[in-house]
Write a structure and sequence with these properties.
Strand order of the largest sheet: 9-11-8-12-10-13-14
Largest sheet: 7 strands, mixed
Structural class: alpha+beta
Number of strands: 14
Number of helices: 10
Bound molecules: magnesium ion
Length: 335
Amino acid sequence: MPDDIILLAHGDGGKLTHELVEQLFLRYLGNPALAALSDAAWMAVPGSRLAVTTDSFVVSPLFFPGGDIGKLAVCGTVNDLAVSGARPSYLTAGFIIEEGFPLADLEKIVASMARAAAEAGVQVVAGDTKVVGRGHGDGLFINTTGIGFPLPGVELGYHRVQPGDKILINGPVSDHGLAVITCREGLEVDTGIVSDCASLNGLIQEVLAACSGVHLMRDPTRGGVATTLKEIATSCRVDIHLEEESIPVRDAVRGAAEMLGLDPLYLANEGKVLIIVSPAQVAACLEVMHQHPLGQDAAIIGEVQPGAGQVYLHTLLGGTRYLDLLAGTPLPRIC
Ligand code: MG
């Protein structure tokens, strides 16, 4: 494989994505806000701060169990703001549409965006439409940019993570990844797996209001829980220990992942948040999560320990696995 062209794996959120971001984009475009490489950038504006994030959506197929590209384009950007400790407020939406795309499908997608935006309490305040010729796009791509404002008294970041902190997740992992893959492969009738695509700002704001001990949040999208935790361990210079038996995975998801030779810890989630919280507040945090519809299956899955950036998975069989950034078989166009 030549190393001077873009590969599908440059877009999977794993090792090659990291290299591309650090060695090309940051090298040319870097500044303190961008270099933080967080889900949303915080910028000073007169009298306040502003969180900004942007994301492009190229999911295939455009409609999948539990969602579609429009819902995903709203929820994904809302969640990047929410996990950064911002109150999501405004979105922009850019549509790149291929000539010949059915108007009825476009309307379904835009209506779905409108529902998702209303549920999340955000407004689409600017947009753009471009049409490319037949064969020069693949139906529809959407880019959304999100703007959020600070929640009073909330400060999250890698610098706040400490040994002893607990790691929580709000429910079962990899529903989105498996829903899209099985739908693409024509297997959805057999598995019944539905994407977890949802806006998490409501749940997150309740957690933050109740627990001052939340130190960091991330949404484990591309690359899954394993890649996101490896990024956290590396950035915080700590080790993370995970207990496999505590990580919720639905039976249908586990079965389908095994059949396809995929590891649920590396598959995308679109309605999940990893919360790193002080041991003193973990019980309070879990209680708030359990009372929210999107946190009923919340669980403590691991702990932060002193170290140098390793993620250890203590397996059901009593062994230990190192988890690294996603590298290997790319699963393109999952979001
Ligand atoms: Mg994110």
